[in-house]
Design brief:
Elements: H1 21-43, H2 53-58, H3 65-82, H4 94-104, H5 107-120, E1 125-131, E2 137-143, E3 158-164, H6 171-174, H7 178-185, H8 191-201
Helix pairs in contact: 1-3, 4-5
The structure holds manganese (II) ion.
């Protein structure tokens, strides 16, 4: 069964001024749509056609560039849209907050670790908050469309929060000011969704 481009739970302009409508429209309708179409083409007629995207990535042959890049792109952007929401931001609380405090000591220290991972990822890539089995959380980053579900990639575990730091994610509004985009991202995180993913994955 072919993968479908997920619909957003909000309008393209809903994340302004933090993420602008034109960027959102191009990012979702062109970039994410492109990854989706190319993923489907890459798995058509293969056994991967019947697997979930998580299973495809967890058992990935890393030398398969088409599935690595487009499967990663499909999954990463699907996660990214879901963990932002202008209407339902929630609060960082409960077991997820406790896990972050255990790992980083304070919320500010976590934000610094996440922001540093996002800012120092050279070239295109993603910053992640991942959860390991047992509930320990960890920040890391990956290049291109890789993610920690893939074999041997970065910190491992299940990503529950991700930030796209490809230039296509911010350049129209922020140009080269990636740190400003990273700061703005914290204003639109849907912590309810991140907490839900934490509970499912831990
Ligand atoms: Mn992107």
């Amino acid at each position: 069964m072919a993968f479908e481009l997920p619909k957003l739970n909000y309008a393209y302009d809903a994340l302004e001024p933090h993420i602008d409508a034109r960027t959102m429209e191009i990012h979702h309708s062109k970039h994410h749509n492109g990854y989706t179409t190319k993923l489907n083409a890459a798995i058509e007629g293969t056994p991967l056609e019947n697997e979930s995207i998580e299973s495809i990535l967890e058992h990935l042959d890393m030398s398969n560039g088409a599935v690595r890049n487009n499967g990663g792109g499909f999954y990463n952007h699907s996660l990214f849209w879901s963990i932002m929401d202008p209407n339902d931001k929630g609060e960082l609380s409960g077991a997820l907050k406790d896990a972050i405090l255990d790992a980083y000591g304070s919320i500010d220290a976590f934000k610094t670790a996440f922001s540093t991972a996002a800012a120092t990822q050279f070239g295109s890539g993603w910053a992640w908050l991942c959860v390991h089995k047992g509930g320990k959380v960890e920040v890391c980053s990956t290049p291109n469309q890789d993610n920690p579900l893939m074999p041997g990639v970065s910190c491992g575990g299940t990503p529950i929060l991700g930030l796209d730091v490809w230039e296509h994610a911010y350049y129209l509004n922020y140009q080269n000011r990636r740190p400003d985009y990273i700061n703005a991202f914290f204003n639109v995180i849907n912590w309810n969704e991140v907490a839900k993913r934490f509970e499912q994955a831990k």
